[in-house]
Design goal:
The chain has 558 residues and is α+β, with helices and mostly antiparallel strands. Helix content is 20%, strand content 33%.
Length: 558
């Protein structure tokens, strides 16, 4: 099932693991060394860099692996596609390439190099190493691939993992939780299984002997009584060559809880913030833009005043024809400015759509734009009053004020949706405007359950440590304390509307754990949907699903 999804959903830039590791002399497990004084770590090319704690911040590293060739004159070829900058490729001390991917993050571009027979040692251990840096963003599905194989010898070694639940979701103490590996092996070998939780703790290790041919191996995971959580399963077939696969599953996600509590005075904090916003004259303006119009809708730019003397803008689309319509507020992902308007312009449903560019995004980035000096998350990270998410949440509230002011909006039918940062903004908007929002849909949100987030996505700790260096009198714990006040999870209990949560199990940017932590804090009518083969890249139509849900619910409210 994993392979089918990869081949159909993202074939344009990924390689399936089966094909990638067919007759591969290289294990997917590599040594990672950042400098001569650092102890070596392991890195698995079947997993994303980010899931293993590596990013553009990690600096220069060397990854290396060992392999054995039987006859060095058989014509061996190196094929690879690594999402990082590659400065050199060395085998047994000889540099065989220094220019293949020097430009950096090239997703899915495959390089092939014929290995000179003179650098290989027949019947002995050979070592290949890459000098790399600038690890690229994947969203969770690894596009990394590295293979050494005889050029004209490609047995169909493969491993496919499947689970007996279509969405890979199981109840606590499930009587059946079976992981099945469909194995095709050209020789006898060993199949190794490792199951880890999303915090990186290894909970299951099993090894099975595999005969030549096509076989199924079933692992009865129910015997381990795994607690509520999210689990990564990796299998590697070793039979003189290597094949592997990865799958995620979850147990009782509705029992997931945040590891920390909201600040005792968080209600007062947000009451004060809302009072500040309400003291500012909104100064709503609306300008029609011909290029945003179509046969179905009229398009506008809306502008309004928000806190900290910042004007924010939004794209505003209204069906042609008189009357009142339900309205959907779209909120932006990190850095997204809603650049593409075709979908909004050509929508035929009778619904108003407002695509808000919060400060620092798109057409609202003219007066407030910290991106040249830092990333948005870093802005005033230790300042309770100036923190960017305090202001961004209030921008969203102001957009709701705009919708409430419009005669064409049916103010009893307003919905909000977003993914990633937009998901966090959607949660905050539904919470802070709880009696004015009637339906909410969100995908893997940020910032949400931040303390657990940075325990799972460990590069978040490095990011925050780098942010606090930008300011005097700012330290790591101060930054986390401020995050507690703007954490969408700590606002979620105030949501009163019906809600949909979508999550992708391969998401390493905003892992499923943090979204469920918020979802489980919501006490109104709610539902969730799991995408077991998707990542933060949203290849499976999550945004279309959110729109359908919100529009359907608003339509039923007539």
């Amino acid at each position: 099932m994993t392979k089918t999804f990869l081949a159909i959903g993202i074939f344009c830039f990924l390689f399936t693991l089966n094909n990638a590791f067919a007759q591969n002399l290289l294990s997917p497990l590599w040594r990672m060394e950042k400098d001569a004084n650092r102890e070596q770590a392991k890195v698995n090319l079947m997993l994303s860099w980010e899931r293993q704690g590596y990013s553009w911040m990690s600096g220069e590293c060397t990854i290396s692996n060992d392999f054995v060739v039987n006859e060095k004159d058989s014509g061996y070829q190196l094929s690879f596609s690594l999402l990082c900058r590659i400065d050199s490729v060395v085998i047994n001390g000889y540099c065989i390439d220094s220019s293949s991917n020097s430009s950096g993050w090239t997703r899915g571009e495959k390089y092939k190099i014929k290995i000179p027979a003179s650098v290989l040692k027949s019947g002995m251990v050979n070592r290949i190493s890459f000098r790399v840096s600038d690890f690229g963003y994947t969203g969770g599905l690894s596009s990394n691939f590295c293979q050494i194989a005889e050029k004209y010898n490609h047995p169909n070694d493969s491993v496919n993992l499947t689970l007996d639940s279509s969405n890979h979701c199981y109840s606590l103490n499930a009587s059946r939780l079976k992981l099945t590996a469909d194995v095709e092996s050209s020789n006898e070998g060993i199949l190794n299984l490792v199951v880890r939780n999303d915090f990186g703790d290894t909970l299951v290790v099993e090894s099975r002997r595999v005969d030549k041919g096509k076989k199924q191996q079933t692992f009865a995971l129910e015997q381990y009584n795994l607690p509520a959580g999210f689990y990564e399963s990796t299998v590697i077939l070793s039979n003189g060559c290597y094949s592997g696969d990865v799958a995620w599953f979850t147990i009782a996600p509705e029992s997931i809880e945040c590891g920390s509590k909201a600040p005792a005075d968080i209600d007062q904090y947000w009451t004060t913030a809302l009072n500040e916003l309400n003291s500012i004259e909104p100064q709503f303006t609306l300008q029609k833009v011909d290029s945003l119009c179509s046969d179905f809708r009229d398009g506008y730019i809306a502008e309004m005043s928000s806190v900290k003397d910042v004007s924010i803008r939004a794209y505003y689309f209204v069906p042609k024809g008189a009357g009142k319509y339900p309205a959907i507020l779209h909120l932006p992902g990190y850095g997204n400015g809603f650049t593409y308007h075709k979908g909004f312009k050509n929508r035929k449903e009778d619904v108003i759509e407002m695509a808000l560019c919060v400060r620092g995004h798109g057409i609202s980035a003219d007066k407030f734009n910290p991106w040249n000096d830092m990333t948005l998350w870093a802005y005033q990270i230790c300042n309770l009053q100036e923190n960017v998410y305090r202001s961004a949440y209030l921008d969203c509230v102001r957009a709701v004020d705009f919708l409430l002011s419009r005669s064409e909006v049916d103010t009893t039918r307003i919905g909000v949706l977003g993914g990633s940062q937009g998901g966090g903004l959607a949660l905050a908007t539904a919470a802070l405007c709880n009696d004015k929002i009637h339906v909410c849909a969100f995908f893997d949100p940020f910032p949400c359950d931040v303390r657990d987030l940075i325990s799972i996505r460990k590069i978040g700790q490095e990011e925050i440590q780098s942010f606090v260096k930008l300011y005097d009198n700012c330290n790591y714990e101060d930054a986390l304390r401020v995050q507690d006040y703007v954490d969408a999870r700590n606002l979620a209990s105030k949501i009163r509307c019906q809600t949909l949560f979508l999550t992708a199990l391969f998401d390493d940017d905003c892992p499923s754990h943090v979204g469920f932590s918020a979802f489980n804090s919501i006490h109104s009518k709610k539902e969730f949907k799991i995408y077991p083969f998707d990542s933060h890249m949203c290849e499976s139509g999550e945004f279309d699903e959110m729109f359908r849900f919100v529009f359907e619910k608003l339509s039923l409210m007539q």
